[in-house]
Amino acid sequence: MIVSAQKVVSLRKDNGWSQEKLAIMSGLSKRTIQRVEKDGVCSLETKLALSSVFEISPNILSCSEIIQEDKGNITYKFDWGGTFGLLVLGLLAPTIILLTGTNGQWELASAAIVWGLTVVFTVMTFGAKTTYQFFDSTSWIVKTPSYVANLNILIALAHSIIRSAYMIGFLAMSLTALTLAVHAPHMLNNKVNFLTIVIRPLVHAFIFMELWIRPFKNKMQSMLKNSCP
Fold first, then answer.
1. Residue 66 lies in a domain
2. What confidence tens digit (pLDDT) does each residue in 97-110 have?
3. Dihedrals φ, ψ of 117, to 5°?
């Protein structure tokens, strides 16, 4: 979940507590406190523990905007390298599907399962507004803003999305293998065809993450590295 790192730091200092003291009082580890104060990303349990020790509503810790830009001071630079890379990756995705796919309906179903459940899981974890802001910001791959606040939060969110997509892809692959083995055992006679069908969800997780989300994550890391302190 996304919380306001600034609010956590402010509340801790208002109470005159060190990070060690807050960790002890909340029952959390010092490392967790440091991560929350740095990135503003935590689990629901951590958010509830912090709101309890501060004696406030959990909603007060929420960070409603992960992208806080002063539109008047932001300029955008067209990135030709990012555009060319995205074009190449965009051509690579259908090429992978055409060369390795065997069943059109299962191809669409696999993509819908992985992409759809990843988005749903992200919305359930981080909220619809934060999820929309994240995916809307992937345009930065080709049009880079001069400054963006809270890049650490976006990078952590990208990492969470990548992890979720691969987890969903692996689970879908496992369930597909089990289903075919039980209800269509004759398919085991053709191991190449069996593996080609079974692996489709993981292939789409790879396409979704490595050809879109990870390049965006790398872009943000580069922006963070090059930003002024």
1. no
2. 777 666 678 888 88
3. -70, -30
